[in-house]
Amino acid sequence: MAADDLIAYDEPLMPDAGLQARVRSLFSPNEAAAGRVHRRRGWLIRRMLVLADLIGLATAFAIVGLLFRTNWELVVASLASLPMWVVIARIYRLYDQDEERTHHPTTDDIVGVFHLITVGTWLLFIGVRAFGLAHPTLGKAVVFWGTAILAIEAARAGARALSRRSPLYLQRTLIVGAGDVGQRVARKLLRHPEYGLDLVGFVDGRPKPRHDDLMDVPLLGGPDEILDLVLTHSVERVVIAFSNDTADETLAAVRALNDADVQIDIVPRFFEIVGPSVKIDTLEGLPLIELPPIRLPRSAKFMKRTVDVVGAATLMLLTAPLFAVAALAIKLDSPGPVLFRQTRLGKAQRPFTLYKFRTMRVDVDTEEHRKYIAATMNADLAANGNGLYKLPRLDAVTVVGSFLRKTSLDELPQLFNVLRGDMSLVGPRPCIPYETDFFKPHHFDRFLVPAGITGLWQVTARAHSTFGEALDMDVAYARGWSFGLDLRLLCRTPLAVFGGRGAA
Question: pTM higher than 0.85 for the full model?
Answer without folding.
Answer: no
